[in-house]
Amino acid sequence: MGVWDFIQDQVLGMQWLNALIGMGLSALGLDVTGQIGGSIQFFIYDVLKITVLLCVLIFAISYIQSYFPPERSKRILGRFHGVWANIISALLGTVTPFCSCSSIPLFIGFTSAGLPLGVTFSFLISSPMVDLGSLVLLISIFGAKVAIIYVLLGLVIAVIGGTIIEKLHMEKHIESFVLSAGSVDIESPDLTIRERLIYAKEQMLDTFKKVFPYILVGVGIGALIHNWIPESWVETVLGSNNPFGVILATIVGIPMYADIFGTIPVAEALLSKGAQLGTVLSFMMAVTTLSLPSLIMLRKAVKPKLLALFIGVCAIGIIIVGYLFNVFQFILM
Asked: How confident is the model at residue 59 (pLDDT cuts 50, 70, 90)?
């Protein structure tokens, strides 16, 4: 086993933990090859693995975030123009909170501060779709090639989506309270390393409390799919025999609400049962980017026409990405 395979399987994937749990359950008399024992092993392993990765990633990313408060982020974005502004905005979205609902207040703040609308939408699209956490988690499940291409294509969707919205001059479809809110450009105080570490710890604990219920639900659904749903059912609905699987997965994902940590175990179980890679990734993108609660929140800040454009741009981009991954799945995995 090469160094990278070891990192992917044993460090990020924690296969040693899965084996350890399996031995423990077997010692207790459970048959881990059966449906009940297999479900319990899947549930314990995935909850522990995702929880560890969640806490480590949020702590690290929150520490990085402490150097990019809204005021500093606004100034950074204000230095760039045209498509470069969209690219920087999309990249900035990768070090922001994990769910779309927590990105919307920042989007409103950037918009009220006078940043171009397309730039703020590039941020809004990329923030939940392609953060650093998703990169690490995707590597642990699907491998480095899939994870890196997923993130790159997500950034492309964010840049193109923001550019389209910018070119269509949709400013009049922003609610008036956002445009009139203004912005107080306050210099952020310089934090000591200890203060940044405290901030990162607080962010980690706060996010964990919010996200953990979704992890439990997501892993529970994953365990159900992995051990109880017949493979033929999943292949019929989401496999290569259904040309509309990507579209179906995208539509099904939109009403749901979870973040990358809650959708990973579901995606992992679907893939093991014969669902196509692109179909699974489209489901993940739809859940994290176009969740119903986040759309309801966004509607408070934008008018229906702009909201519909945002949904349409994201959905079309997600569907295209899904079909691309399906076409090249045999190369990537």
From this structure: confident
The token duo for 302 is 């934008």
Nearest-angstrom CA–CA distance, 60 and 65: 9
Q: Cα 194–200–203 angle (5° rounding)?
A: 140
Return the amino acid letter for 267: A
Confidence of residue 198 (pLDDT cuts 50, 70, 90): very high
DSSP string, 72-107: HHHHHHHT--THHHHHHHHHHGGGS-SSHHHHHHHH
Tokens 């806490």 map to which residue?
55
Q: How far apart are the C-alpha atoms of 113 and 72, rounded to whole Å?
A: 12
Q: Is 170 helix (H, G, I), strand (E, B) or coil?
A: coil
- The CA distance from 279 to 275, in Å, is 7
Q: What is the pLDDT of residue 185?
A: 46
**Six-digit token pair at 39?**
């479900």
Range with the poorest average pLDDT among 41-55, 95-109, 116-130, 153-167: 95-109
3-class SS at 333?
coil
Asked whether the beta carbons of 116 and 122 are under 8 A apart, the reply is: no
